[in-house]
Amino acid sequence: MIDVLGNGSAPRLVVFDLDGTLYPKEAYAEQVLAVIGRMFVELQGTSAAHADAKTAELREAMRTNWSGTSTTSFVRANGFDVAQWLEYREAHLSIADGLERDENLVRELARLREVVPIVLLTNNTRSSATAILDKIGLGAGGFTQVFSSEDSGDTPKPDPGAFRVVLDRCGVPAARTWSVGDRVDIDIEPLRRLGGAGIAVDGPADLAAAVDHLIGLARQG
């Protein structure tokens, strides 16, 4: 089921999230939790018990408030900087290994791409995002542009600065840009704060409905 958070505009650009949006969040959460626990021990020298407590805290946040929980924000709040997190994640996390090609996803995004440009905005590194996109069948070429952690720098989602990078490079005003993601607070609200709109989905099974809605709006505008 989708949740449309519109502004009355016809989209000239659609920005997609990656984790939990283009593949199921279940393939993401436990792997990320394990890597974060290991990072506490190896980089901060904490005890295994402390690391377990921290990952339990994050797991509970994911369970009760998935829409508002950002792993990047969590590690930053616990003393890691963005570069440190990305380097460790790149070395120890390989979400792509557990994924497979999704023909429905490929078809739906191709259908939307015929009507309006689509881009990807993710807090993943470019190499990690590319590996995931290749595995699910889209490839980086499935999008007009791919924006990764290397592009957003010190302003990763949920910072609106990540969306400002996309808008500036694509030359599209926020008011004509829509975001599609599985977490309202992380993927939708930062763009809405700039004047944009969005559609919240529970995962890839909802993308057909989101695409139908966006195509309808684009053709009206």
Structural commentary:
The protein is of the alpha/beta class. It folds into two domains: 3-24 and 100-220, HAD superfamily/HAD-like (Rossmann fold); 26-97. Helices cover 52% and strands 10% of the residues. The chain has a six-stranded mixed sheet with strand order 1-6-5-2-3-4, sandwiched between helices. Strand 3 (118-121), helix 6 and strand 4 (145-147) form a beta-alpha-beta unit. Helix 1 packs across helix 4 (82-92). It is globular, with a radius of gyration of 17 Å.
The value of Rg in angstroms is 17 Å
The helicity comes to 40-55%
Count of structural domains: 2
pLDDT < 50 runs, ≥5 residues: none
- Largest sheet, spatial ordering of strands: 1-6-5-2-3-4
Protein name: FMN phosphatase YigB (HAD superfamily)
Organism: Lentzea atacamensis
